[in-house]
Design brief:
Distance between the termini: 85 Å
Oligomer: single chain
Helix content: 10-25%
Strand content: 25-35%
Number of strands: 28
Strand order of the largest sheet: 4-5-6-7-9-8
Radius of gyration: 36 Å
Shape: elongated
Amino acid sequence: MDARRNRWSRPSLAGALCPTVGLALLLVLVALCGRARAQADDLRLPIRFAVIGDRTGGHEPGIHGEIMGEIERMKPDFVVGVGDMIEGYSGDIAAIEAEWKEYTALARTFTMPFYMVPGNHDIWDSTSAELYRKHIGEPYYSFDAGPIHFITLDTARWSTESSFPQEQLDWLKSDLEQNRQAEYTIVVYHIPYWIETVAKGEPDRLHDIFMTYGVDAVFTGHYHAYFSGKYDGIVYTGVGSSGGYCEPGLTGLKYHFMWVTADMEGISIAPIEMGSVRPWDEVTAETFNLVADIERDAMHVDKIPVGTATSFEEADFEVTIKNFSSDSTLSGTLQWSVEGPWNIRPKRLPIQIAPGESHKASFQARTRGPLYPAPTVSLAYPYASGKSIDIEVPLGLTRTVYASRVEEPPKIDGRLSELEWKDPVKVLYTGAGFAEHADSTAFSFAWDESNLYIGAVCMDDDMASLVAGSTEHDGAIFGEDCVGFFLQPNVPDGPVYQI
């Protein structure tokens, strides 16, 4: 086979979509392939391209197309496939024709050139080879992408390096010889002979040729798992599954593709896991604000006053849920997460709320032990078609202290002798709701039309142990032996102020 002629008749996406039937279609094929060539040949470094892995071998429907969509969003200069595009292995020619039509239609996802090589599911005998040529093109060829020379090989019917045909080896050497001037040379084929030969220190005729002619990188598929290695300066990459059956490999990667950048510094390769490339408008500003409103206001849980108690027999309370949608019914289930001695009835409650409406759900709570951790109610709240967020709101427990109104402001003299400082708070609680055993500490509160007054008596049995660690203005005094207050003038839903 003439190397130069084969280089011009490479299969790209344009070729795959134009079967050569009749003169008119042939002219269209040549025109489209010519346009794809111009796009690739005119490239300058840096050049970015994607390598997509196997689709078949017990393929998961939809996965390959989803990965194609992610690649399309990233707009590489072109895409290269490593084979196994159809399930194949059938004597039913009509069925194989249908599979190729399905794949070429799927490949129209790409708006950039798409270069393909056959896998063992694509070509397995002479008949399937002719069908491949009909729908895709020549099974091995080469092409240029700016200063990068690409060579694709057909390994579909030869499972070992030792059985690889001499005809292709001769063509490979001829093509490499004619393109020694390329800035980079990259080879793509399906079955990774190198993992059983080069990686184990065994002889490999392909690797010997690659070394002789200065090949820079090799991409292969077939194993549905990602692995890589660098041998004699040649970077080898086994591309994992892009839709064929697989389990996450040692990297944790399952379905993925490769993103490759070639610049004056060299060739950089990165596997990208499916789902990592999201559409630009996946979360619009409107959706962001809607979700923020839902998280803040969609579900409100009444607070239960507990005073100085560490338990209570029973309390009724309500949960209010608001449907933010103007056209969809909110359907879901309120689910309580309960720990320790807490009991919430009912623990699960289905709800349906009309568009724009609110609903109050009634519950009963009881505990004979520690108040914390308090129960939490959750709801999977839909905010768009097929999308939802999990809202979780704890049961509110309040210990309320009231300030005394005074006619005359207390004298600020460091003494708490006035009548206004009555009923001081002396019992404190930990974040878990247990009584705090602190040295003598008491707080009193008073107010008039103009001011809030706070009186605090804080004693320590060992005053000498109180040493300040924060010495700067506005330092982190919360890490010291300190007193802090959270004030809420409008109970239960008003703003909270911290001192």
